Structure formats: C-alpha cells, structure tokens
Amino acid sequence: MAAVENNVIRSQERVKKLQGVALFWAVVWARAYPRIIGALRQKSWLFFETVFPLLGVIGYIYVYRAVNAPQEYIGFVVLGGAMTAFWLNVLWSMASQLYWDKEDGNLEIYVLCPAPMMAILVGMAIGGMIMSATRAVVIIVVCSLAFGVVYSVGSIPTLIAVFLLTMIALYGMGMMFASVFLASGREAWHIANLLQEPIYLVSGFYFPVRALGTFVAAAASLVPLTMGMDGMRQLLFPSNQATGLMPVELEVVLLILLSVLFIGGAYFALRKLEQIGRREGRLIERRR
To answer: How confident is the model at residue 280 (pLDDT cuts 50, 70, 90)?
Structure first.
C-alpha cells in the first residue's frame, strides 16, 4: 500500500510540473503517439491503406491515356490521389473523432483531464498527418515511376511552404469540424459521407479546378485542398501554369488566412461546447 501511495504522489508531482506550454506539448505528443506508432504496428492496415488506393489512381491515369491527354495531366492525377489520403484522414479521423470518442466513452476522460482540448486536437492532427503521409508517399513514388511522371520544381521552398500551409489550414478545418460534428450527434456520420465525394469534384483532385468555372472554383477555394493542390501543380508543372486558378503568391496568402480562420474557429467552437456543457450538462444535441 505504501508503494502505491508513493507512486501516486510521484505521479501527482510530475503532473504539477507540466503546466502551460509544457503541458500543451506533452498532450500533443501523447495524442499523436498512438496514431504514429499504431499505424506501424498494424501491418495489414498499412498494406490495405497504401496498396488498394493505388488502384483508383491508376484507373484515372488510364482514362487520361485513353483520351490522349497531355502527360502533365497524369501528374495531376498522381498528386490528387496522394492528397486524398489527407482529406479522408481529416474527414474520418479528425472531424468525426470526438463523436466517436463520445460513443466509446473517451470524451469524458478528455474533458475531465487537466489537458486543454485544443492540445488533444492538435495531437490528433499531427499524428493523422504523419500517418496519412505514408499512403501519399507510396502513391506518388509508385505511380511516378510506373507511368514516367516528370516533375520540374520551380521553387522548392515555395513548394514546401504551400504544402505545409495546406496541411495547417486543412487540419485546422478538421479541428473545427470536430466540434461541429460532435454537436450534431448522430448526424456526424451522414455529414462525413456527404462531404467525401463532392469535395473530390469541386476541389479538382483529378483535373485542374479552373475547368469548373471561375465562380465554382472560387467557392471551392474555401476548402484548403483546392488552392493547395492548384499551387503545387503550378510549381511542379510550370509549363501548365495557364491552367492555374490564381497566382501561387496569392494562394499562399489565402492559405495563411484560411489557417488563421479555421484554427481560430476550432478554438471558439471548443469554447462554445465547454460553455454548453457547463450550462446545460450536455455536449451534443438536445434529446427529443
């Protein structure tokens, strides 16, 4: 009994030492850890999640080959197929995660623990981003080698900046949607299904989004993937900059604004949920 009490005291001392920024980043790593390590432990999951998605991308490639499309369009498909990994991760492992945690009984633990909820969401985002990168890299490497895709990077720092800003804005949107989906209750599953396929179309995963027209493409730019993929395509295939939606520099500025908007929206959405929880004793929709 004395040994147990000593362990409890030491644990409490360690918890007290972690405050402020130190506590925040400790929670981020703790939440990201199972997504990073868990993906490597499930060998079958790693196989199915990386090999099977290749089939859909290869199908689009053969469609473009059948209609004698320019070689750059095959590169568009490869990049779009790689980015689907991040979109699906945001939709199912970010936006829907708090609702699933509620169903599994983990949400109460998140709320009761001293860790900030924002740190938990950031940890989910970082872990999910690294987990999805495995599938994205496999798609790019295999399809590029198999179909002879040639990249001509105009500016590597700009390309890295566009990709990172796209990820920050995209996962910020997922963090905001996590609160929205949780508040919607059982409708979260239907909302996720509703958003999955239409985003493939309006964001131009497999074709230049400019083909949809100026107004549709501008509306689709609210999804960070739209401008992110458009910017990366312009940088990777400079000969096709005429198909771009807008200049890359402007897309970088807009991605920064979207990052601030979605991360700020995620913070205020969580605050709103906490206020509802304190005032009404609920974190989901009112039962009828």
So the answer is: low
